[in-house]
Design goal:
154 residues; globular
Length: 154
Amino acid sequence: MKFSTREDIEAPIDHVFAQMSDFDAFQRRAMRRGGQVKRLDDGPIKTGSDWDIAFSYRGKDRRLYAELTEYEPPYQYVVVAGSDGLTITTQVELVALSRGRTRIAIGMDLRAKSLTARLLLQSMKLAKGKLAKRFKARVVEHAEDIEDAYRKSV
């Protein structure tokens, strides 16, 4: 199952990429929502950086292993995460439309590798419209936060 969206942001590509790849901020956000995130490598973010993530979903404790498989600042990165027979590939691409305007394209691809994961994806497919709207709304909210942060810094 795939989700994707695009959004234009009134900020330069370097600023947008810095915000979109602020993995420490993502980690803090997940922890505020009750998840536990632990980075497994040290040093700067690079291809091969990985995380161990634990959270509760639908009343069950879940665990994810996420790895940054592609990292090309300031244009794109890809994170592949796996859990209990489910693989989630998230791709973030940025294109400079002008000096002060950037387009982000975010795509998520969920694939099942087990019967349990297939059942989960099947139930998600029934609510795909609602989930796609939520996905788009989160991306729009994040884009607005990036624009606001850029305006404040200028």
